[in-house]
Amino acid sequence: xxTAAELxxxxxxxxxxxxxxxxAFKSADGQYDMPTSKVGEYRKRxxxxxxxxxxxxxxxxxxxxxxxxxxxSESQGRIIPGEVKDSAPARIETKxxxxxxxxxxxxxxxxxxxDYQLDDPPIRFNIPADLKxxxxxxxxxxxxxxxxxxxxxxxYFGDAEPFFPHGTVDSAxxxxxxxxxxxxNAAFVAEVNAATDSxxxxxxxxxxxxxxxxxxxxxxxxxxxxxxxxxxxxxxxAKRLQKVVSNKILNGSGTTPIxxxxxxxxxxxTQAKGADPTFDAIHKAMxxxxxxxxxxxxxxxxxxxxxxxxxxxxxVDGVYILGNPTEAGPMRIWGLPVITSxxxxxxxxxxxxxxxxTIFENGGxxxxxxxxxxxxxxxxxxxISLVRRLAAFHYRPSAAATITGx
Length: 406
Known about the structure:
The chain is α+β, with helices and mostly antiparallel strands. It has a domain at about 145-305 and about 340-405: Major capsid protein gp5 fold (2-Layer Sandwich), CATH 3.30.2400.10. The protein contains ten helices and 14 strands. Strands 1, 2, 5, 11, 12 and 13 form a six-stranded mixed sheet that branches. Strands 6-14-10-7-9-8 form a six-stranded mixed sheet. A two-stranded antiparallel sheet has the order 3-4. It is globular and about 75 Å long. The two termini are about 40 Å apart.
């Protein structure tokens, strides 16, 4: 089975071949003067790119899982009787002992936990505690910002959030570092000659954890007589909330109370379409992410109207390049998975390496129902409120690039 590195090299080769194939049929007006006989060949190339891209994505996840398993199966050392005294208590009886036990477990398995993905096997460790009250990690061990994997499913059609890693934070802000200087002077040098030093500069940046909320009034009689309606209302509110979050992850201004968007944060790149066909402009944006951003794009995002134009691209003979109307057609471009979102400004698309962004959650989604608003108690009304507290931190803004003028 080929490795992720081998599949990545094959993917780059196939993308370059497809780009050269399209370039041969590019017309002066930015369209493709491609004979019908060649459309099938392009579709075959596109299918090959999609297939290799999926294999590469699977290989990356498989190798990550293998690495985590290897770490967990490594020897943790041993204690030779008489040389080292085991100071851990046989049973935990105090809060201080519980705190020390938790910290020790997280230190011991820290690397495996840091690399953990939601679909990995669970990591378990035993703590010999005699609990007289319910104790949670949050009461005894303050969690720090950490990458804990990706959410599993989208709540609505244009949900971008599932593609970004998630972490947790227990504070009102997130402090991270953005690399602002990367001078690479690594080189071969002759004997007794001095090497030129490289230079890295990281700039500390503080992002506020912002609140996003929605609420709706409901009759107490409705919720009492039709108990399923609370779940229905809550689910609909959750979708509205998620749509706002997803859109702002893409285009948020970063001005309180709005989180930073991956295609807005200072340092992102831009590729103008100009006279190029849209396909070419997207590929050039991907190249910018690789060359300047030193990253690998793994997601393309477009406004639904823009993706419609891309999907309906035809040759001068009227043949659909991305597949006939009888076919669903791939939601991929140059092998990248595509999502459509109204969070993107119409006329501007984007490609991004999502691994350089983390969505930090403070407490997750909170649902509250109350009669304490205004005169709701005497009117027998209930206020149903949903709120999330989160920040979107983009460690390498140049890992994202927009395509304008499409």
